Amino acid sequence: MMNTNMIYKACGWALAVALLTACSDEPGLSDGQPAGPHVNLNVSSGLQPASRTILQGEQNAQHVTRVSLYAYKHKDANNALTADYIGGMSFREVDWQQDIETAMKDGTSTQQQLVALPESWKIDEDHPQNMSATYTLLAIGSDDSKIKDDGTVGSEFLGTNSTAAYGLDNPSYKPGETIGESYATLQNGNPLDDIHRSELFAGTLTVKGSALYSGRVINLYRRVAGVKGYFVRIPKKVKDQEVKELRVVYWAAQPTSVPYYKRESEEGKFMDYGGDAATSPLIPDIDKTMQAGYLDKCTYFKIGRDAQTGEFVSQPGAEIEVDKGEEGTDEEVVIPLTAGSYVLPAPGAVGDDVTTLYVVLVSEPDAQGRVTILDKRRVFFVTSYESRAVTRSDNTDDGTGIIVGQDGNAESQETERRYPIVANNYYTIGTPQEPIDMSNGESDVKLYVDPRWEGFKDLGTIIEKPDGHNQQ
């Protein structure tokens, strides 16, 4: 079992894997090299000590247990977005294993799966007219685990997983009539928390039909981001009002869909998100009120109180375990409270004096269902040591996609507050060693970003010297 002391040292860990091990008699799956057209599916994420959100449960991981493969035929060889859907297939209850402890040390846990393309797609030598055509193949990896009586994989997700959240288990599911219309969308009636508990992978390959006989690799990357926070000394009262909880919130209603096919930025404008970009903030100023339901639409995660003790507690399964030392002495350690969630990519904030993310303290709802914002702190992006190491850049964070906000504003101040939320990136508000002190009255807090979630084998060392994040 992964213990949370490792999480304290390495700021979490990435989902292992690479997909897939499955029964060889399932349609499309192959133990050996298929003679016909085929692809090799690979989830691009090793179990390296890299940053990761910590969800409920002792294992702190969602496993990819289901994979789907869809084919789209191009009308224009140079435009994947207009390619038309021709067919799809899914593999359920994929059974793979991972050695968590070994992978944490060296990141070597890897499994792949060859998939033979079905004859019904007619991408084979019996249909020579299709050999010269261009296709885009879309692979989707999701969790389809269910609650088990023994409390193992699945039991911590309260019956929720990414397969159900995005409707992938619907027998008639089709991502979209074209690649450009193919989105993962939270199902109607499902709460936003289903997004926050669901990890989702996707990858695409654009290729000539004839090239599929030699086999090509489809790498699947996360189409979600991770956001996590570390906090200490959360006040129980502000101006004589009871604090119900701390929340980390997006500046407007968060997106509920994401394109499977990654969108590139256009003229410095971040485009890789679903839905329409917000144009005005929802989070009011301190001492103002808002409907609790609207706040829920913006909320990424919260830290609330224990029902028995009234003390603020970490998200279940995310607790940091360290030696507290002797109470009242110099050895006593204030342990950060922490929580995190998966979120969908989102554009940066727009408008004067607005930031993409906030940390807020809120009251209990009143009789009209309105809550008061008791404290509100802007979350500013801080140039990270890891980002520059990856991009070999002196003063930008090319690897994170955080160069400009939604408007393409390149000024430093604008960059720091109007950053987008980028898929496969991991955002931490504070660190275990430098948590956000909610008792000091400051108005701004720091956000660190890892540009490649599966990236850094020496992240634990980097985290131990947080000042390195602040180098400009």
Automatic annotation (TrEMBL):
The keyword Signal applies. Residues 1-24 form the signal peptide. It comes from the Bacteria. The keyword Signal applies. Keywords: Signal. This is Major fimbrial subunit protein N-terminal domain-containing protein.
